[in-house]
Here is the input.
Amino acid sequence: MKKVTEQIHKVQILDPAVGTGTFLNEVIHEIHKSFAGQEGQWSAYAKESLLPRLHGFELMMASYTMAHLKLGVTLKELGYEGDDRISVWLTNSLEEAGDTIQRLPLPGLMGGLTEESRLASKVKLEMPIMVVLGNPPYSGVSSNNTEIANSLVYKYKIEPGGKKKLQERKQWLNDDYVKFISFAEDQIQKNGEGVVAFVTNHGYIDNPTFRGMRWHLLKTFDEIYVLDLHGNAKKKERALDGGKDENVFDIMQGVSIIFAIKKHDSNINLATLYHADLYGKRKDKNEELDNLDFETMEWKKVDYQEPYYFFVKKDYKAHEEYKGFFNVHSFFNVDSVGFISANDGLNISFTEKEQAQKIKDLTGFDEITWRIKYSRSKDSRDWQYLFAQKDAANSKDLAISQVSYRPFDTRYTLYTGNSRGLYSSPQPKVMKHLEAGGNVGLAFCKQFKTGNTFQHCFITNKIMESSFVSNKTGEITYSAPLYLYHEDGTKIPNLDKEIWSKIDDVAGETKPEDILDYIYAVLHSPKYREKYKEFLKIDFPRVPYPENKDKFWKLVKLGHELRGLHLLESSKVNDFMTTFPEGGSNIAEKGYPKFISAGIRKMGSNTPVETGNVFIGEGQYFGNVPKIAWEFYIGGYQPAQKWLKDRRERELSNEDIDHYQKIIVSLSETDRIMKEIDEI
Here is the structure.
């Protein structure tokens, strides 16, 4: 018969990434509160019924040591008189039971760590873990990259239903926090009942590629509660009133709390899901969290739907409407992501002369000299020095061409169209139609993560880089040319005939440019962007068929204006006038200024449009720049700021100065036209 001290208590609690013991420390304090007035029983209870069911795993020696010290001090301060060893073990939760930590600070510790591993394995294999809690690490590039650790998320790399592999090749399911959620799910599923309570990255809540994970969690648990703490600086999140939204930690990635509950012998098919939000400043969030009561909190039931099973409320009525629109990606017969050079330092230049010199150096220098000059000590898988040199040497007859690098930012390149040469991935199937000249292409993203609003479309009449609209992860830019060119120079519209015909049924006879301008106007509608933003986050944009002929042609007119503004071909851009306030210096008076830094100052409060001066050097500035233009976003960029920042320490020519002022006019006019679009 086993001794009482060897009995396994039913409620076993585990922090699989215990760190310095913060969560287990709070568990001890919380349980101790129930002994108010009966403190004499605490020491015996702690020895017999508390310590045998508190466990922690930690990979880092320093944190592991601190956890033992912290928990030991807490127990002693609360009146515990024993000296039992606390069940916190130096082990990796994401590895198989029995694996010994290999990163030893001293060789002589091997024996002790082998025993440590054995006792940790006992917890992993024998203890019926009923509560898994903590704040596991989040890292997009996981440090736990072994086969065992990676296998934890295989069950999430599926389409909902569990029968097909996830279609996306690129996703963040290998993040460490996802592996820890999977580990926790396995522990509760093995036990048959229990609770997972984690503070984690909040990306899994509504990221489309996490749909298999969400479905699997709904299948395992009976109730799931998600409290989104927001604070995502990468998305530039704001509070609902437009105020500041801060992270509860000193990190950029937004966070959330999940409570996943599995009941004994439950026959529920998919869990009931609840969601709540917490916005605001860090201090206010912490105060509210301190005072929150789980039972009385205003949780909102989420009616999730396939195929995404989002862990947040969505307007599915709008989704049904949105699904009836035509998909921009499908409407263009040929499109692709923009080109990837994999070596912009070589392939992209501000001037034609600079680019020509780079090619001359590549073909004329010896390899060591070239690598030193261009600070390229290593090659990548898809860009090799010898292949690039050969491609350049074989392309002497090709002219340097212009490239749409960023919004309003045209640069120069030698484009050969050869894969794994000068470029890693030149995407010739689309770029050849734009390189021909006389064409125009719609640039758009499959999904967006930057900010709370879709602003991820633009226009180009040149070959286009894959980060043209945004360089944020997951926001790669696609390009769809309006026309496809044959080798003999003839061209055909790159439009789906069936969709085009449906539009003509409403609008009358149209040209390809009319359709493009209609699409461009719709994608710039603030009302459209707001109403369908949740769906624009997860797939290629969809555009409604025109309601009637009158509205269609009004939108075509405004879309045409936008296209001209964004290609800097509009008469409103070319006829611009810039004034400089009294006491200010016309930047052209001092020759070509070297750009140092930019910031908008002296915002005017007595003018109809709030304006300021954008200083770029000592006494040199662009005057009367509208604030709306300075802060305007296109995709992941603020062009009025980025164009200048990218030219730090470069002398701005008169042509550059004129170009920048055209950008300001274009952005200001864009804001005006977007408002007009919403009035139609």
Confidence is low (pLDDT under 50) at residues 1-5, 100-111, 577-593, 600-607. DSSP finds 24 helices and 23 strands in the chain. The two ends are 83 Å apart (CA to CA). Residues 654-679 form the longest helix (26 residues).
